[in-house]
Amino acid sequence: MTTGTPHIAQRPKRADGRRNYDAILAAARTAFEADGSEASLENIAARAGVAIGTLYRHFPTRASLVEAATRDGLADLVARAERLAASPDPLEALSEWMEQAVRHFSTFRGLVGILAQSMYDEGTPSHAMCNAMHRSGADLLRAAQAAGRVRPDLTPGELFDLLSGAAWVREQSLPDRDGSPRFLRLVLEGITTRNPEP
Amino acid sequence: MTTGTPHIAQRPKRADGRRNYDAILAAARTAFEADGSEASLENIAARAGVAIGTLYRHFPTRASLVEAATRDGLADLVARAERLAASPDPLEALSEWMEQAVRHFSTFRGLVGILAQSMYDEGTPSHAMCNAMHRSGADLLRAAQAAGRVRPDLTPGELFDLLSGAAWVREQSLPDRDGSPRFLRLVLEGITTRNPEP
DNA sequence: GAACTATACTGAGGGAGTCTCAGTTTGGAT
DNA sequence: ATCCAAACTGAGACTCCCTCAGTATAGTTC
């Protein structure tokens, strides 16, 4: 329930600023992948070759750093949804998109929790991107429902709960056993309509 | 992938030790409920009226404190499964038990993550209790499958993934909107057999 | 190319939390 | 009354978070 406009990190105008911004982002991605979203910021700054104050200058909160590190991937997801919306098989389209989404949500430990929060908390850097995703996912769901392939009472919110749950389970089992594909398949089979048109 | 026998906290023999052990446990339950599993241990010790060293004497790791704080609830769950095993309606029994389990898994923020780890990591204080739960849940699942009410290819491991996912989603939405009952219902409807005997 | 200034960088330092251990106290047995 | 294993204490070393006063510099202007 944070309030006020969240800080969205912007690539700086000065050359040295851009250089450091990029270095921090690269170090952050590596660190998040290794240690999860709670990776040490001091460590990230050191690996980027900057002082801790510089990291905070560009990314005033951990959430803003996570947002910047995952921005592109989420944008991809939205773009992919728009492409899939034209598919002749809406259930296949929905399935494919959800698989992609789950994969992205579990890029590193802790991400899905942050995104789930962002979904409902406007005072969060990732909120805007999450909203866009929500919308494009809802479109795919509606199409599959209109084609009679998915139970009509499923809401977009529920779809995202299922999605997040699947991503969380996958995240838990990283990096060894990979429980997710099966989980998502179960969920998908669970929400398809019981009596397909003969 | 921790190794060695995990430390399971035991109620001490000396009277002062027992007093403090109980006080710490009570303070911990309150703190976990309020702040999640990452609640400050110094704070818990202070509220229990003991020095930090005393807390560490009884509970050498955070996981051992969580284990002790949730031990009874998990034992209840196992007992309930044994009672439900005698039910004439195995699907109803499974449903009721899963609902109970989800409620318990989301007693406080962070618990379901700890339990999910414990399920597969033997070097964890909660591993023994999780194993017992796994077994009793698997029994209920088998019964429902034998009665032809649940898809026969669902494994106990998958059941627990679904369970944990539901608990995690519920935990995320605490304390305001409560997304879980619906989530679990969707999952349950998803795993019941498609063509019930006529 | 010198002066200027907004932008950017630095790192010491205060705060919070974790965990350990050398020294001290005490419950309960003999 | 004595004893000692069990239990308690809290200072201190460590890690991490985050801020801010002081310093440096990229890029613009003349």
TrEMBL record, chains A, B:
InterPro entries: Homeodomain-like_sf (IPR009057), HTH-type_TetR-like_transc_reg (IPR050109), HTH_TetR (IPR001647), Tet_transcr_reg_TetR-rel_C_sf (IPR036271), TetR_SbtR-like_C (IPR049445)
Official protein name in the record: TetR/AcrR family transcriptional regulator
All copies of domain HTH tetR-type, residue ranges: 18-77
Domain of life: Bacteria
Origin species: Streptosporangium fragile
Keyword DNA-binding: yes
Record-annotated DNA-binding residue ranges: 40-59
Keywords: DNA-binding, Transcription, Transcription regulation
Entries under SUPFAM superfamilies matching the protein: Homeodomain-like, Tetracyclin repressor-like, C-terminal domain
